[in-house]
Amino acid sequence: MTESSSIKNSTQNKRLDTLSDEEALLLSAHLKKQRNNGIPIDSDQESISKMVAGLGDQRGLLRLRFADSLGAVGQAAVPALCEAMLSSDNVTVRRAAAKTLTLIKDPNSLPYLISAFLKDQDSVVQGSAMGAMAAIGEEAVTPILNLLSNPEITEMQIGLANWALAFVDDRGSKILRDASNSSNVEIRKAAITALTSKIDTLNADENIDLLSNASRDDDAEIRAEAATLLGGLEDIDWAKPLLISNLYDTDSWVRKNSALSLIKLNATEAIATLEECELQEEDQIVANVIKLAIQKLKQRA
Description:
Order of helices and strands: HHHHHHHHHHHHHHHHHH
Radius of gyration: 26 Å
Helix content: 55-70%
Number of helices: 18
Largest sheet: none
Strand content: under 5%
Distance between the termini: 86 Å
Number of strands: 0
């Protein structure tokens, strides 16, 4: 009897939601031998089911081998992995299934990843599902943005979505630029944040349009973020008037961030405005920052 036949027979007539320690070791050894000899991993449904069941093993190295092997199988393993991610009672299996889908990057898994992200109570499953969406790339951008309009999404989930959008490859930038004008503030905020994380890949005109619009956004958090980002760019004359204007913003964080960015941009032309703003500033923290900005810029004038 061949090794492959032995593995198949060892779990014959057994529900493949778990593997015994012996079965897991035997399967792991078989997979290792295949990989070492350059033999394609078995991609029939029975073999896939066994590898998915192995994702529940308590030994991390074995789980990693099963996950890598499923990743090598590719799209043929996606249905079984999605089913395990959504329906397994074993949280270790659900976590590992979501992480394995990250390796395959199949857009067909998106609806299942979204479901796991929204419905699974385990934060690791949620994070792994979002990581798998980020790995898919451009095709995942719109579904991720749409999640932000879900009224039941938590602050942690919003953070995960923002993180994923920042890591989506540059092909998704056009979708993000369109979304930066969304009427939904969470979508707009996420799109602008993601685009600014890719600021070095945008051309000069796109930089100007994006950050100019963000500096005048209705949402104070977006304006404050834009003020910080402007200070992180190279010395650019077009940014200074935006920051000087925002010293009069109604939001204290916008005023504070604008003053700090003017220091970074060596905007000595802002000294007179800063002195005027210092006299009328009611927030003591902001007043202290403006005072510091005046001192620093006068030293460089």
